[in-house]
Task: structure prediction
Amino acid sequence: MNYRDNKQLMADARQALSGRWKTAVGAAAIFLGISYPLQWLPPLGGFAAFIVSGPLTLGLTCFWLGVSRQKPVRASQVLSGFQVFWKSFSAYFLSGLFAILWALLLIVPGIMAALSYAMTFYILADNDAMGARDAISASKEMMLGHRWRLTCLFARFIGWGLLSVLTAGIGFLWLLPYVGVSTALFYEDLKSRQNTIN
Result:
């Protein structure tokens, strides 16, 4: 069975978000409303933002998966990652650390490493018993041969990102769900055709 092309993934994401945009925008607002202002709080705002990024990312990922699977969702699910704080923080810290270490060699290996780890939080969201390092390893295996496809998917949102900047950033409240659900569907395609996740 063939993978859906990126255009189809985006169309399916819009379909999944139909009737749920208000909730999805609310989820994006919670995520951005916590993570972004923290960065500007002196003197340790940046550190605080880093500490909460893992749990927020996991919670938001759970929300995107719920939307992609047509399950009931609540904007407050964004906060659910704090229930497994250390695991979500470890996944964020380790995947970021590994990507930075690769980037110290060359920029391109760093980017490729980041793409390899892109499914980490989706895997964690689906596997409560899995640890951070195992999820990172599973993501690397899952993404073999698919990094370019994911790069092309993200590239399709560049224009939308520029438009969001022109709206003083408000457009990101709609762009974030669009990208998140499209990526969740990308993950669903990989998962349904691979045996990486048990």
Remarks:
- The two ends are 20 Å apart (CA to CA).
- The mean pLDDT is 90.
- Residues 20-190 form one domain.
- The chain has one domain: 20-190.
